[in-house]
Amino acid sequence: MTPASVPMQRPTDARLLEVDSGGQIRGMLRSSFPTLLRSGDIVVANDAATLPASIFGVHKRTGRSVEVRLAGSESVFQEEVRQFSAVVFGEGNYRTPTERRPAPPELHPGDTLQLGTLTATVLELLGHPRFVLICFEGPSERIWEGLARHGHPIQYSHIPAPLAVWDTWTPIAGLPAAFEPPSAGFALDWRTLDAIHRRGVHFATITHAAGISSTGDVELDTRLPFDEPYRITESAARSIRLALAVGGRLIAIGTTVVRALEHAVSIHRLLKETTGVATNKIGPATELRVVDAILSGTHEPGTSHHKLLSAFVDQQTLAKMDEILQHHGYRSHEFGDSVFVEKSGDRAAGMELNVFGLRHRTATEGYMLQRSF
Amino acid sequence: MPNESVEMHKRQELSPWKSIRVAVTGGTSGLGLALVRMLLDQGARVAFIARNRDRVERLMRERTDARGITGDVSQKGDTYSIAIQILGDLGGLDVLINNASSLGPVPLAPLADTNCEDFERALQTNVLGPFRLTKALLGALAASAREGRRPLVVNISSDAAISAYPNWGAYGASKAALHHLTGIWNAELASHGVQIISWDPGDMDTPLHAVAVPDADSTILRRPEDAARELVSKIADLILPVREAS
Questions:
Q1: Looking at per-residue confidence, does A183 or B2 come out higher?
Q2: A198 touching B (Cβ < 8 Å)
Q3: Does A45 touch chain B (CB under 8 A)?
Q4: ipTM metric
Q5: CATH (residue range A54-152)
Q6: Which residue of A has its CA nearest to B79?
């Protein structure tokens, strides 16, 4: 696949490869996405806006230039804006492929980083010389101002032109909490939301702080995805419960939605209002308890996002999908084409017994479910 | 704490506005300033935006419960910086008041004497600025609706948007465009639970009016505090499920 190199969220020729529950694969324009939905389904998207999480500055002890990429936080709420995990690079910028970026100066707890008007202190190293916990100084409004004025969207070398913040916000972006865009949501413009609404499809959002997708270090990349905080509101949880109760499918827009929802049900045994930190890694051994299908980007084999798809379909189907994506020149990365992957029928059938009361297929049981929550 | 302040604090704690998050552009003078003060008094969580950092900081010193943001809504490049700070500071948004306005040419001039650049400034501030900021904040407003709130955008309009007053060409045409934009936004967003209205405060005794009509008799002009009170009451009708008896 070729990385999409232009930051256009919804090119008219964007393509979608559908893998249905029977393993059948077909291509279409991504604008046809609403036709894959059925009345009663619920589409769940990640409404996190993307922080300008790359900040350039100076490591004060050595005077050397650094780029700090914020990578994680304890919570999606603004009170937690002070403390972040971060990946630190040496000189240079996104135009150099991440894996070739120079290492930062040796970082120690107590080191100060001057990042525009922002001052941050290294609190601790997180098991790797370039992965640290930092704390910004000053009141939260000053930190927001500093991020807004001095931060840039995290960017990689496959896009030559510098990204603007608006390139990285999905149309539904709300709370600034993500470190990289929840890019599957680029597909959801307001026209599409109206179209799915007209089909009798429900829509809900969660907020999940999508983390960074590459650290430039092979060893550190094995730890991806990092822990990611999320919030599921009571209204979203209720919408999802009601849709599932009457047999609707849950369509996740992006890997972050899968991760958050599956994490929440694994902790609470049901979907309810939750703020949590997703620590789960989803792969072939994962039993998906709430999500039925995913709209996602086209991911390269070997990445954590690609591995997540193997929770939906077997390796053989996934390999077939990869081959078609490759052969037909689908575009990859955040501004690329998309896949729609439905959980295979055998996995879905097996799961009906294991869903902690979330999967009731009859109207009567659905009514009981509504009352029981 | 003086008795008056204690009373206000009590009123704010019980206020239905307590959880309402409001952003006001042009918040350091005229109607915007009166709105910021009144909304804070009601107990709302308020972020205000203005171009002049000194004035922003002065108001933040006066009202430590407000979040001040320095930015210019007429500048495309400021849009997301402002949006990030509003959403970060308030944790979301329920009400956006697009109040910042530009007269265009000062002193006011017939269209035939209006420079393109002055007209463009009026369009940037009065039409494109509110359009861009609304668009950037729409995801948060729609999220507010999905959480069962009744989010609202108020675009401050003028009778010059409706009537053709000589010398008010740039301002009137831009406010007419904003007025129409508002109607279309509202029709398109009704299904998403986001309300968008125009509101005309009338002729007020504000710095903007003084620039437009230097020889106006200020005693017959409306006080911005009175206009703000009327608008806050209207907003309450539209967003609060049950009005408190006052």
A1: A183
A2: no
A3: no
A4: 0.92
A5: 2.40.10.240
A6: A166
pLDDT exceeds 70 at position A114:
yes
Q: Determine the length of chain B.
A: 246
Q: What local confidence, expressed as pLDDT, does residue B1 receive?
A: 55
Give the residue ranges of DSSP H helices in chain B.
Answer: 3-14, 30-42, 53-62, 79-90, 116-123, 129-146, 169-189, 207-212, 224-239
Question: Is residue B165 among the annotated active site residues?
Answer: no
Tell me which long-range contacts A300-305 makes (C-beta under 8 A, separation of at least 24). A300/A1, A300/A332, A303/A213, A304/A224, A304/A225, A305/A213, A305/A255
Confidence tier at B242 by pLDDT (50, 70, 90): low
Domains of chain B: 18-239 (3.40.50.720)
Provide the pLDDT confidence category of residue A357 given band limits of 50, 70 and 90.
Answer: very low
- Among A353, A207, A109, A37, which residue's Cα sits nearest to residue B144? A207
CA distance linking residue A70 with residue A88, whole number of Å: 9
Domain residue limits, chain A: 2-50+163-372, 54-152
What integer pLDDT is reported at residue A353 of this predicted model? 36
- Topology given in CATH for the domain delimited by A2-50+163-372: QueA-like (3.40.1780)
A86 touches chain B (CB under 8 A): no
Distances (CA, A) of A257 to A32, A183, A215: 21, 11, 22
A55-106 residue pLDDT tens: 999 999 999 999 999 999 988 876 667 999 999 999 999 999 999 999 999 9
Does the pLDDT of residue B244 top 60, yes or no?
A: no
Q: CA-CA distances (angstroms) from residue B212 to A262, A371, B100, B108?
A: 60, 62, 15, 6
Q: Report CB contact under 8 Å: A176, B81.
A: no
* A23 Cα distance to chain centroid: 25
